[in-house]
């Protein structure tokens, strides 16, 4: 009995001791918690931005809108539009539906004066095979009831556009491929097998076209070069090219006009066959080779490259087609033809630009083989925005970027969705925006990282990939930039080829070519009434007031106002260094508030003006050309440029030919950036972006009274003794706040080394 009582007491004591121990531990943990590291960096989801509906007037058409327009046009019995996605050239085909931009005056009334929202309309392009002409329609208002109006005459001063000016559609390509199969491959099976390893349905030859398609208006004669059926076919030319005349809308009337084999021309298949059989043409003997064009890495990845993250959440917001970032806001769109564009670009609420948009990408090639002798590509004729495909996270854009889907209706019979074809991200460009370390007197450090917002799309147009960026900096600058990458175009090396480029693989010539890109920059500096100013520097000889020993040559400021369109058409060779779109208003210091256009370009000559094709690319004459804004001059190039180069329906030089006044007017700057590409061994397998770019930077110049980035929350400042203080240097506390074992502890001892005068 006594033993039982003793056992119970022991148990009770143990339980009480246990409880006391738990309570003491809790109290101790609570008491000591202040001494443990705090990992309390706040990570909000994203900024809360005050979006408006204003951007919607520039928004691309929605899938519902595309379908409504298509169905409406299909229901117009008199237009007799085919429903097939691969309509033949002889049929009527609805080639394109794209947003019709509102008239600028209406848009500004809506944006600035609460006027009624401009009606939403579409531009519709119909290729009328039955009637052998092309027409453009305005269809709207959306959401309906819809009406259509033929606007061809209004836009192009002709009742209908020439049939030969149309883009080659998927439907026409189907017929071209069938033609090649029946009229070339089937007839030359033996020769093509022996020469190029051609085996039907197993080892094919892939076609690549030269453009333009002929020598004069109305021509549709295309040189097609053939390439091995490998990935990266563009750098696998086989030395075989054919000229097809496909002018007639019925493919049964098409003809094979010429052949080229190993540098020798033949008029017919038969003549080539005879020559090949007799051995009078030097035969190319097929040899299987490893695919040097493959992009499969030659070594396996060993890890992941550095990735950026937003430690405190995104500082920008994308809603519908409007982006808000720090002091910036803008609306965006992606035209199937011209590509990326932004509108109503504002900094601190003030509109800087009404529109900044890509207009055209052009390349002129040199060669001694026919597929490329004449080649001058004008990409908007096939569609620049059309080829914006899904972007790859971590490579095309940072993993943490915001991705936007786009919808298009071009060369098809249904709306197509392209997921994640636009990306938006904030990125530290890796070089301070500004900094100063005060070594002499008043020791201090002030600086700021250059974190900017990127708005990007990438278009893969055939062999080339163009990376298009609009970049918004915290100093109030905005930049439009393009970089080229992808495969070069090449031709089979024959005698004399090296005059037109360098050899880059066995029998492969990388052809010399140019890249020219045109941007529309519609700046509105404090309203639409602006002037075009130039500034530069010259030397003048001056007396030295304190001595007669000698004179000195001193730089001085040369300022001019260019008053007419022709005066302000500045070629690549002749342009003052500073170009400004300026307001009549002045800043605190009495200078005209302006934005400067700083063009990064190594363009050179585009094409001698005596060449008939030059009319379709006359925008490329000028590094910067300023025109008075007109709704009738919306683009510098057109859908019809490529296949009607010799009598182009849009000839930019006519925009400035009337030499209108540009004083106190609404001004548009048409900016051309470009570079010469002499392909070299390192273009194999792909051209790299490093060094292959150009663009235009729009930067404030006396627009503000000081650099606006001084107000940025990213500014860093400290003095001797306050190096570890986080009040104006958030990075100093990052390691503690994140408790990150990978972050180096923050230290700064730079003031130890300053000059001392005592
Ligand atoms: Cu190139």
Automatic annotation (TrEMBL):
Occurrences of domain Copper amine oxidase catalytic (ranges): 309-710
Co-factor requirement: Cu cation
InterPro entries: Cu_Am_Ox_Cu-bd, Cu_amine_oxidase, Cu_amine_oxidase_C, Cu_amine_oxidase_C_sf, Cu_amine_oxidase_N-reg, Cu_amine_oxidase_N2, Cu_amine_oxidase_N3
Enzyme Commission code: 1.4.3.-
Pfam families membership: Cu_amine_oxid (PF01179), Cu_amine_oxidN2 (PF02727), Cu_amine_oxidN3 (PF02728)
GO biological process: amine metabolic process
GO molecular function: copper ion binding; primary methylamine oxidase activity; quinone binding
GO CC annotation: plasma membrane
Active site (catalytic residues): 379 (proton acceptor), 464 (schiff-base intermediate with substrate)
Post-translational note: Topaquinone (TPQ) is generated by copper-dependent autoxidation of a specific tyrosyl residue.
Domain Copper amine oxidase N2-terminal: 67-133
Transmembrane segments: 12-29
Residues of the Copper amine oxidase N3-terminal domain: 199-263
PANTHER family, sorted: COPPER AMINE OXIDASE, RETINA-SPECIFIC COPPER AMINE OXIDASE
Name of the molecule in the record: Amine oxidase
Organism: Astyanax mexicanus
Taxonomic lineage from the root: Eukaryota, Metazoa, Chordata, Craniata, Vertebrata
């Amino acid at each position: 009995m006594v033993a039982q009582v003793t056992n119970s007491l022991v148990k009770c004591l143990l339980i009480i001791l246990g409880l006391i121990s738990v309570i003491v531990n809790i109290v101790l943990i609570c008491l000591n918690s202040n001494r443990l590291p705090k990992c309390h960096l706040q990570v909000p989801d994203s900024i809360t931005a005050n979006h408006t509906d204003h951007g919607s007037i520039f928004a691309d058409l929605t899938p519902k809108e595309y379908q409504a327009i298509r169905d409406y046009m299909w229901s117009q019995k008199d237009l007799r539009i085919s429903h097939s996605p691969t309509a033949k050239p002889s049929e009527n085909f609805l080639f394109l539906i794209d947003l019709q931009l509102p008239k600028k005056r209406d848009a500004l009334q809506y944006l600035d004066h609460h006027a009624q929202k401009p009606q939403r309309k579409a531009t519709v392009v119909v290729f009328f095979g039955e009637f052998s002409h092309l027409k453009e329609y305005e269809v709207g208002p959306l959401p309906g009831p819809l009406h259509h109006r033929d606007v061809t005459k209004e836009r192009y001063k002709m009742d209908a556009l020439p049939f030969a000016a149309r883009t080659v559609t998927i439907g026409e390509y189907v017929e071209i491929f069938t033609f090649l199969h029946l009229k070339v491959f089937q007839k030359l099976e033996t020769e093509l097998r022996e020469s190029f390893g051609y085996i039907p349905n197993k080892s094919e030859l892939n076609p690549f076209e030269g453009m333009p398609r002929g020598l004069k208006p109305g021509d549709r004669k295309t040189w097609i070069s053939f390439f091995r059926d490998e990935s990266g076919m563009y750098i696998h030319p086989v030395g075989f090219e054919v000229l097809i005349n496909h002018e007639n809308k019925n493919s049964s009337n098409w003809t094979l006009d010429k052949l080229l084999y190993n540098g020798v021309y033949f008029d017919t298949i038969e003549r080539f066959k005879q020559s090949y059989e007799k051995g009078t043409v030097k035969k190319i003997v097929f040899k299987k080779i490893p695919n040097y064009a493959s992009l499969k890495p030659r070594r396996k990845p060993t890890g992941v490259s550095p990735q950026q993250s937003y430690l405190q959440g995104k500082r920008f917001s994308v809603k519908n087609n409007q982006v808000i970032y720090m002091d910036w806001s803008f609306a965006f769109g992606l035209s199937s033809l011209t590509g990326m564009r932004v509108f109503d670009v504002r900094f601190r609420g003030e509109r800087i630009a009404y529109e900044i948009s890509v207009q055209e990408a052009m390349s002129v090639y040199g060669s001694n083989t026919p597929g490329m002798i004449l080649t001058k590509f004008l990409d908007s004729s096939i569609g620049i925005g059309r080829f914006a495909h899904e972007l790859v996270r971590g490579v095309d854009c940072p993993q943490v970027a915001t991705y936007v889907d786009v919808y298009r209706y071009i060369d098809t019979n249904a709306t197509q969705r392209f997921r994640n074809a636009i990306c938006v991200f904030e990125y530290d460009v890796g070089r301070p925006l500004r900094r100063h370390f005060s070594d002499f007197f008043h020791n201090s450090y002030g600086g700021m990282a250059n974190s900017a917002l990127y708005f990007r799309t990438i278009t893969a147009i055939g062999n080339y990939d163009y990376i298009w960026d609009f970049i918004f900096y915290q100093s109030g600058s905005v930049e439009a930039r393009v970089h080229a990458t992808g495969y070069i175009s090449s031709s089979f090396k024959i005698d004399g080829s090296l005059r037109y480029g360098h050899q880059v693989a066995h029998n492969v010539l990388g052809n010399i070519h140019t890249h020219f890109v045109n941007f529309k920059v519609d700046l509105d500096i404090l309203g639409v009434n602006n002037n075009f100013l130039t500034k530069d520097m010259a030397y003048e000889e001056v007396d030295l007031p304190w001595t007669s020993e000698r004179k000195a040559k001193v730089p001085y400021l040369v300022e001019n106002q260019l008053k007419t369109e022709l005066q302000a058409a500045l070629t690549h060779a002749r342009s003052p260094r500073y170009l400004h779109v300026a307001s009549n208003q002045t800043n605190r210091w009495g200078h005209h508030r302006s934005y400067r256009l700083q063009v990064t370009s190594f363009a050179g000559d585009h094409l001698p003006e005596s060449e008939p094709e030059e009319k379709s690319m006359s925008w490329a004459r000028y590094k910067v050309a300023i025109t008075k804004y007109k709704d009738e001059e919306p683009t510098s190039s057109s859908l019809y440029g490529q296949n009607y180069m010799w009598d182009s329906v849009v000839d930019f030089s006519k925009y400035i030919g009337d030499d209108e006044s540009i004083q106190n007017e609404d001004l548009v700057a048409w900016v051309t950036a470009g570079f010469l590409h002499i392909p070299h061994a390192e273009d194999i397998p792909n051209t790299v972006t490093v060094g292959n770019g150009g663009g235009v930077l729009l930067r404030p110049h006396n627009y503000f009274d000081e650099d606006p980035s001084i107000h940025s929350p990213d500014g860093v400042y400290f003095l001797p003794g306050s190096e570890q203080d986080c009040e104006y240097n958030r990075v100093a506390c990052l390691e503690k706040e994140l408790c990150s074992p990978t972050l180096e502890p923050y230290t700064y001892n730079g003031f130890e080394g300053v000059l001392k005068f005592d």
